[in-house]
């Protein structure tokens, strides 16, 4: 990682063209999904590293992109491609733990990638897009709106750390520790869940806070209050959240 980790993440060659329509942006973005030779995978990997170590740097690059390309949203789908690959790899590990056959594994991958990540992500992005533009703009009459693509980017950024925590970290401990009926197992597993929720909310907050025309973005962090309550109640009531998640995964593919 060397000296590069101390610098702002580099962007592809600047381009100061006029802003295309949202439909044009989305069409261009998804058209590039199969053009791997045009994707900057190294840049996407660095973004993923920074989402754990210094997530604010990822959104500083979104501001830089606005200055050079006149849009906050990514125009390179490399991050989404690597994220999908990570989901598939984690699904393979979880399938071993859950003893899924090949066809159940394929169904599991479909649920995780197409439903949990993309479909639900699109719904969350749409709701956030509507809410921020309607209630969080400093100037309601301003022509500058939150881009839908940027709202989807914020979701993808926020989705990555929970993916690592809930699918990879817990995978190392689930069979022999987290799945047990011990208090420490329940405490550890439920704490992993809470950390994942905190990451998602905090990165989402950073994403919208970086937009200079939004106000009161701290309200996003209020979602942590019910999360803490669920965590405390689950510990006191003897509920193993991670085991419930794994049971849910197994239920919907069988």
TrEMBL record:
One of its GO terms (cellular component) is Golgi membrane. Keywords: Membrane, Transmembrane, Transmembrane helix. The keyword Membrane applies. It comes from the Eukaryota. It holds the Pfam family UNC-50. It is found in: Membrane. The chain crosses the membrane at residues 78-101, 108-131, 158-178, 190-208, 220-242. Signal peptide: none annotated. It is a multi-pass membrane protein. Residues 1-21 are annotated as: Disordered. InterPro entries: UNC-50. Belongs to the unc-50 family. This is Protein unc-50. The lineage of its organism: Eukaryota, Metazoa, Ecdysozoa, Arthropoda, Chelicerata.
